Task: structure prediction
Amino acid sequence: MTDRATMHRVPALLDALARDGHISDRQAVEAFVLARQGETELPLHIRVLAGIAAVIACACFVGFLWKLGLIDYDEPAGMLLIGPAFIVAAIVLNRIPGVSQTTVGSFLLQASLAMMATGKLLFIIGFNESFSTPWAWSLAALIVTAATYHLFPMSIDRFLSSFVVLLSVMVTTVVWGEETTLPHELLMTGFFGLQLTVGAVLLTHGRIRREHLPLGYAIAFSLCVIGLTSPAYVATYPMVVNGMLAGGLIALFAWAGGGVDILKRPPMVLASLGAVLLALISAPALMLSIGAMIIGYAKHERRLLILGALLMPAFLWTYYYDPEVSLLMKSAILTVTGGALLAGRFYMSYTGKSREA
Amino acid sequence: MAIDQVPANRRLVEELYANGYLTAAARQAALEFLKPHDQWSLWISRLLLIVGSALALSGVVYFFAFNWSQIPPIAKFASIQIGIVAAVGAASVWGFTRTHGQVLVVGASVLVGVFLAVFGQVYQTGADAFELFTAWSVLILGWSVISNFAPQWALWLAVTNVALGLWWRQAALPSEEMAFLIYAYLALLNGMALAVREWGALRGVDWIARRWTRVLLTIATLLALLVPASTLVMADDPTTSMLVAGIMGLIGHVVLYSAYRHLLPDAWAVSATVLSGCLVLDAAAYRILSSALGDNTAATWLSLGLATLVIFATAMVYLRSIAPKLKAAHD
Result:
């Protein structure tokens, strides 16, 4: 599902607002908009290029350190010293004035990213080897991510580091959660609910600063992983998670429509009923997929639209192998749900809601 | 950047609101301007159609999977054939130019593949997988031609790529000397599809001109060019097919770069080509460094890491320098 809406420019928007008397000082608004353009990061395709270079270079640096004997599982203290040294060097390199404007600048920028990745990897391995607790690598990842998030302003690093933290907590909770004093399911459900709340705020609230968006995307990815991975999902209280997701979807409808009143319109009533239906059939990935597409469509964020669209076939694939429900039951659930959604679509066509002006 | 070039979107509206430049009423008016409610209704309607169709069709597939061994062959064939006829019949009624009809044709095309698989299973034809995929590709070609629907063509191209790859392994049975020619064939197939896409887009064929079709076909073509090109630069004693496909891979990179840098400016396509070129250069750097430094693998790793950074940094600077020109040409 692609975003086919018209792409407007700022003057057209300001003209429309000025016509209705919503703007008094247009010059101030334009000055704010132009000042905001200066904060723009590298385009996505160049960030992808930088990310791939950093991954290859990081692998080469780790190979180099390994060959020199500086990566030694029997001597984790060495890694705990070298890792932070790499991280500090990466931050210094990244702060050289004018970085990324020239070939040397771009080299330093990518070198800093590669060194940051290498440093974090070494620190996490060293920390994990030093402490005999399954939570060590989650804690190590959290420490380096929190310590560098504001000091190292590259969104790809922020996204990957945050995702690693969330993924490590999820894996550790699923694998080792039963050894904790709290109920296993309570931990996992709490973790899911916390991510859903923080993710919703980061991705929809107007006052969130741009630097926190990578964390929002990391949470969105992490939620998708939980929704798609049967061991992670069954480690929660599924009905509670489904309830949270359905409630979140309905809140999202209200947010996207501009207020709670929008929920009284027939298409939104149908959509809300659809959300409840999806909760009843236990389809978390499907609800997350729809949620990602709604936010993506509302905010013109193609990345979320694509994430939502890709999550749909991924859900259908993993659901087939879900051992919790029989194939016949899955078949009935999918057919009835699909039929209900199609009935909603035909109701909208019949009443003209799909073309309303 | 001039103010008239700045796109207006929800993020901007939210930031203006958050910083006190817009009141709540102004924010609502701005959102209504950017996304009128009729667009939301249309979007929800499409979402319901696509998600509903996907779930209902998957439910049918799951049902067959559950009962597969118990279903008599006649019922298997009848249900699939009825599905095909019903989908094509309904598409004819709705029209192949409308979304409903086009989605139904894609469904019918998938069912043709299912039918061929069931046919081979029931009659134990002993046919190779490449014959199934070739038949599938031939049978749905006609629908693809009349569908005017990019996803239908994407399905056809995916099936044809698999057919070609399987034919190479199961029927062509190439010698080691000729093994790499498959990459040349795949590059030609996807490259020709890309050329047709560009030809159609230049002539104003809207359905083929969607951006994602170019991205998909460029990536498919580049993958078929990258493997032989990087293998060639690393090989000490290349085979004939490695040489042919590798040289074709290198030339293909130049052709794609020239096309999307000068003829049809596109930042994403140029970046994808440059990225692929960087990986080929990195492969060449590995070969040169490992030969020069011999057994000193630590030095090889370190210098390869630095070489990678130099190659990609140069590419980044270049891409940033041409980005405004590409954007201006694209606009």
